Amino acid sequence: MSLSVAVLSRRSLLLAAMAGVFGSLWRPQPVLAASKAGDPSWDLKADQWRERLSPQAYDVLRNEGTERPFTSPLNGEKRSGTYHCAGCDAALFSSEAKFDSGTGWPSFWQPLDGAIATKVDFKLILPRTEYHCSRCGGHQGHVFNDRPRPTGKRYCNNGVALRFSPLDLIVVGVVLPAIWRRSLQPSRGFGGCWC
Question: Which of 24, 63, 82, 139 is 20 to 30 A away from residue 164, measured at CA?
């Protein structure tokens, strides 16, 4: 047996022993569920959330998962409106703050006042700032300091954690959602009158 093989074997044995000791002492942190709900009426049990949400939305909102990039139809959403939490329907972002970051997730430069809360996330070892709905605590995404003015922030959101509500119709200074638009269209059978 050559000297290099013996040294390599000793080195391998030493590294294996160190890895074994480290592995037996180190315990990974349990995956935390979503943040605590800011509104006690939204402090629901896991089964209640599963009934309300799709499996993908549950994974993101309640288990702090991440959807695959470039899969959300909200990436291409260009209409005016408001982005709401898919868990509790709280308004989180205005479409005026949305921009195309090229990351594959809907991105915003500013949330609505009081809509989100943040915490530090160490899941990728380096600290990141995670943000969640301030009402139900549902995970939305992460915020980074690398984007447009005036804030310089990029709120990178999971599309499955959002619901878009368009502002489609303005009548006498009142903005009405798209659901009401159909009931306010003129009748076709009576010469276009509103009856």
Answer: 63
Residue 178 domain flag: no
pLDDT digits (tens, 9 = 90+) for 141-181: 999 998 777 889 999 999 999 999 998 644 445 555 555 54
Alpha helices in the chain (DSSP H): 3-25, 46-52, 55-63, 178-184
CATH code where residue 114 lies? 2.170.150.20
Contact 151, 109 (CB under 8 A): yes
**Given the residues 133, 156, 193, 195, the one annotated as active site:** 156
Number of domains in the chain: 1
Q: What is the pLDDT of residues 97-131, one digit of tens each?
A: 999 999 999 999 999 999 999 988 787 778 889 99
Q: Is 136 a catalytic residue?
A: no
